[in-house]
Amino acid sequence: MRSDEQTVLLLNCTLKHAPEASSCQLLAEQLLDGFTGRGAEGGIVRVVDLDVAPGVEADMGDGDEWPSLRARILEADIVVICTPTWLGHMSSVAQRVLERLDAELSETDDAGRPELFGKVAATAVLGNEDGAHKITADLHQALNDVGFTVPAQGGTYWNGAAMEKTDYKDLPETPEPVLQANATLVANALHLARLLARDPYPVPSSGGADV
C-alpha cells in the first residue's frame, strides 16, 4: 500500500559536518529511499550543521536555529532520529535534539491534545561496538515521553564487530538483516501514521487521559 500525502523528516545526528562522509547519512538516505518508494515525501537534515542552542525552550534567542528545524518537525508526519554510537551512548547532537523537544510537553493542538500525539517517531543507530539496543531504548522512551508514537520494530541499527574499525559506509554491501529492518521500519511507520491521521488519540479530560 502506498501513501501519497505523508511526510517524513530524518534527523542525521552525526558529529561530522557536511560534506564529510557519514554512515548516518548513508543509512538516512536508505531509509528516505524506502519512504519515497512508498509515496511519502521528505528530506534529511544534518543537525550538526545548524546552530542549535542548548536549552529546553522552543526558542533560545538570537542565533538559535532550532525554531526553523522545529517547524519542519511539526510539519512532518514521521520523524526519524539517526545517531552514531560514541562511548556507548547516542551522540551529543541527538541528546541536544531530545532536550529541545522537551519544550513540546507544554504545547497542545486545537483540540487540547499534546501537539506531538499525532506524529510517529522511529530511530536508526550505528556504531562499531555494542550499544545500539540501549540507545534505541533511550531514544524510544524519550520520544514517547514528549508525545510521539513509536511503531512496532521502529528501530533499525548496525553494529560492527568489537575492536574493529569498519564503518557502515565502508561495507561492500548493506547486510540483509539491516535491509529487512529498514523495510519494516518504513512500512510500519507509514502504516501507523495513516492510522493516527484517520483516528487521532482522544482529547484528554480534565482529570487525565480518557480511558
UniProtKB/TrEMBL annotation:
GO terms for molecular function: oxidoreductase activity. Pfam families: FMN_red. InterPro entries: Flavoprotein-like_sf, FMN_Rdtase-like_dom. Transmembrane segments: none annotated. Residues 8-153 form the NADPH-dependent FMN reductase-like domain. This is Multimeric flavodoxin WrbA. It comes from Agromyces ramosus.
